[in-house]
Amino acid sequence: MDPLAVHKALANPARAEFLRWLKTPELYWDEEYYRERGVGFHIGVCVTEIRERSGLAQSVVSGYLQILRDAGLLVSERVGKWTFYRRNEETIAAFAAYVRDEL
């Protein structure tokens, strides 16, 4: 975990909001909709759903998700032609410990 990369990724309010949404996706998206399609929130949330909720352009959302992924805060998984994102709780916990213990 690179603390500077995490800090930079979290410096943007929209990227931080994406992480908040993905912490409790059932508050923001219909879990039944995902189950009916053979996926669940354990796989993640589809990038299209994140884009729709954010109201941002597809290219902006994709770029933001890539920054979060590069920082280790998100994990992505392809299912067919769709890409799903979920939080990387291990990295988030390591960053929280870093902030608590080092700063």
UniProtKB/TrEMBL annotation:
Give all residue intervals belonging to the HTH arsR-type domain. 1-103
Source domain of life? Bacteria
Q: Which UniProt keywords apply?
A: DNA-binding, Transcription, Transcription regulation
Q: Which CDD domains match?
A: HTH_ARSR
SUPFAM superfamilies, A to Z: Winged helix' DNA-binding domain (SSF46785)
Q: Which InterPro entries match?
A: ArsR-like_HTH, HTH_ArsR_DNA-bd_dom, HTH_MetalResp_TranReg, WH-like_DNA-bd_sf, WH_DNA-bd_sf
Name used for this protein in its record: Helix-turn-helix domain-containing protein
The source organism is Kitasatospora purpeofusca
Output the lineage of the source organism.
Answer: Bacteria, Bacillati, Actinomycetota, Actinomycetes, Kitasatosporales
